[in-house]
Amino acid sequence: MREIDQIGARILHILSREGRIANTELADRVGLSPSACLRRVQELERSGAIRGYRTVIDPAARGAGFLAYVTVGLAEHTKAAQTDFERAMARTPEVRECHNITGNVEYLLRVECADMAAYKAFHTDRLGALPHVRQITSHIVMGSPKDERA
What we know:
Elements: H1 6-17, H2 23-30, H3 34-47, E1 66-74, H4 79-90, E2 95-100, E3 107-113, H5 116-127, E4 133-140
Antiparallel strand pairs: 1-3, 1-4, 2-3
Helix pairs in contact: 2-3
């Protein structure tokens, strides 16, 4: 990927917050003609700087108003244990994000459920039942004053 100049950085900044902005408005805001702006956006897409576009949905609209971040420690520090765990998380709809991290545990999960009862069922029946899981620590989100995930 080639280095991103100041105009490219401005395009990325605007698109990260307003992914549905019209090309003509984007061009006006970054000081390019619409055709030059479109070429820049297409180049950012081709280079991988823009990996895709998403719709941000309110979790409550999907019936998932309960949010927790969960750290998971594995009993075995093997590639097989990690692969098994990651496959299980890929098949688990409550797990919206799964990150392999450094520190005293191996994984950080972002979990969305309908409510505390649904989370308890996930925690006990799904996550806690996995063979390699040694430690689970739940951090229940009470509010999110800043959330810039796209």
